[in-house]
């Protein structure tokens, strides 16, 4: 049976319409001008234990490479498409063209497809027939507006389909340039890191007046540092990143808590003005020392350090000596552990 896949803007599914989740493509499979099936590919799941163990990547590199995986979040065979083998045929057509489509639309490669199947409704037979790998089941927790559900509900089968014969090796490859990843490496903070960040800034004096101070300085600095570690730049981006945090994440950072409707606790994050005001007024040396202490605690993955020195052009003191900057950078993390300014003796 001949078929083709074309990008569309929507799908009809028992779960309802799916909003755009990150990088998203919609497809429809047709035969003789008639729609047979609809598919949606969107951003990969942030966490999936069986998938992450199968890939073999660590928490630090995972977040930066999730964009190389796409989730088949919707797959609907329409009533007029109920023919033998149509599901596996459509998945095969998708597999042959999606990598090129992804590269053209989003400017980077795609190495792996994933999907989740609810065993209460389906058995995943169409994915097995299309040679997808069944990795196991999820733990059953689902994302909510405040974090994750308290109790496990319905574990789902996890299926993956590599689009490259060395997909897992590439996903854990240390060379980001080889993967087509540009820009500053990004990471995702885990719960322990969120709790530890404010502790690093506890000793920094607060330059603000006590009157009207709503957010503790360590919390403001921790949120700014967390946003920067996750790849954000600028005061506005930091504030937006903080505002997007769920209530559970805000609680881990130690954000200000107040009651809503007389019973529910709600954690507030500082505004862009508060973040900017704190960062421009605190002592830069104290901030650098605090960040260095956090990097030291979480930089144990570096097997080697690079030491590099630079001469500061035009930085000459009263005695005519030129200043130099010495930096220590970790090979794997690419984090700067320390910087030292010095003036060599003549």
Give the CATH topology of the largest domain.
Aminopeptidase
Quaternary organisation: single chain
Alpha carbon gyration radius: 25 Å
Shape: globular
| CATH class designation of the largest domain | Alpha Beta
Helix content: 25-40%
Q: Tally the helices: what do you get?
A: 11
List the helices and strands in order.
EEEHHEHEHEEEEHHHHHEEHHEEE
CATH superfamily of the largest domain: Gcn5-related N-acetyltransferase (GNAT)
Q: Structural class of the secondary elements?
A: alpha+beta
Name the poorly predicted regions: 1-11
Numbering strands along the chain, what is their spatial order in the largest sheet?
A: 1-2-3-4-5-9-6
- N→C terminal distance: 82 Å
Strand content: 25-35%
Topology, number of strands = 14
User: Biggest β-sheet: count, sense, barrel?
Assistant: 7 strands, mixed
Which SSEs are present, and which pair or pack?
Blueprint: E1 4-7, E2 25-31, E3 34-43, H1 49-55, H2 59-65, E4 69-77, H3 86-106, E5 112-117, H4 125-129, E6 133-137, E7 143-144, E8 147-148, E9 157-162, H5 167-171, H6 191-200, H7 217-229, H8 235-243, H9 247-253, E10 256-260, E11 264-268, H10 272-281, H11 284-298, E12 305-316, E13 322-330, E14 336-342
Parallel strand pairs: 4-5
Antiparallel strand pairs: 1-2, 2-3, 3-4, 5-9, 6-9, 7-8, 10-11, 12-13, 13-14
Helix pairs in contact: 6-7, 7-8, 7-10, 8-10
